[in-house]
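User: Good morning. I'm curious how FE2/S2 (inorganic) cluster would be positioned relative to this chain. Could you predict the structure with it bound?
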Amino acid sequence: MNEFYPLAIAELKHDTRDMLVVRLAVPPDLREKFRYRAGQHVVVRQNIEGEELRRHYSICASEAEQELRIGIKKIADGVFSQWAHENLRVGDKIDISPPTGHFGWPHIASRRVSESGGNISVSESGGNVSVNESGGNINEGQHFLMIAAGSGITPILSLMTTILAANATNRVTLVYGNRATGSVIFREEIAALKDRYLDRLAVLHILSREPQEIDALHGRITAAKMLHLAHRWIDFPTIDQAFLCGPAAMMEDVVMALRNSGLAAERIQREMFTVNAAPRLLSRRVVAADHAALIEFIIDGHRQNVQITNRTDSLLETALAHGLEVRYSCKSGVCATCRCKILAGKVDMDASYALEDYEIARGFVLACQAYPVSDKMTVDFDCDS
Ligand code: FES
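Assistant: Good morning! Here's the predicted structure, ligand included:
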């Protein structure tokens, strides 16, 4: 399950001083494995000074391109990103896992998802649809609101280009926050998209450290800013779906504004790239720490029983400690690479930033954040819906 493949670097390009865009060559025999949907990410694995590091990076190219391009932003204390900026060369091979993740999907399809009593009902919303490469449908005439901050633009760019190319009537409004013009990642690509889809793409750059002629375009993306923008440029009632990618605090604030403006929760989807460390809920687990439990893991169609003598380890830690090959990256509840479904039993979850409410209602958890509560459990890593 936790497959990695050594892929050669075909191209390296600095989009801004801190953003290195890496294009990876996918050999013909791996093309199906690496076929991606807009909004998905890959996990990069690298051994640095004896330690195996894993990082997840969103794919920034559109679905139609099927070009494996990721952006690695240099982080001040980021061991992997610093290493990548200094060491990667064209022709080098790096370990990459096949695309995964649910951001943007199935929400860009022609479905309206609603929850009732824990059950999910999916209904077609009518109108014409076009089929994208991965087999999903994208309705015509929809208005998508995209909100990104900094490197949060990577999955958003993939979604935007996919949605705009899918048919001739979809509209996208992008609200994109950065410090200054020089730090706007994919500035040229976004400008080219704007030229191409003049009537269907609106772009609002919000800059925090550069004065703007229009005051509303200066500052940070907050709930108040969104309401201000809505007053002049964004017609909230016309929005069919909203996608956000950025820091947790920004997204929580903006989601509140969107909800207060009448956008239903199931029409808002978030992807987080950073999170403030959440306090671990150890106190609850200390009570049950000495209790044994039997966990059945389902991975790649195989069932394996693991007997544990205490419940202090997460499902991910338990699986890895018993030699099971499960996928993971951040281990901090951000990337959703370790998403799995609880078929029987109960867990406590520390953080669930990377899951939408409807996924939790369906029984999905993050293995790196989930701790056994029941004496017997079944955990399915294969289930996708
Ligand atoms: S490994 Fe990233 S959310 Fe669990």
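Residues 328-331, 333-338, 354, 366, 368 surround FE2/S2 (inorganic) cluster (CB under 6 Å). The chain has three domains: 5-96, 124-274, 282-380.
Let me know if you'd like a different ligand tried.
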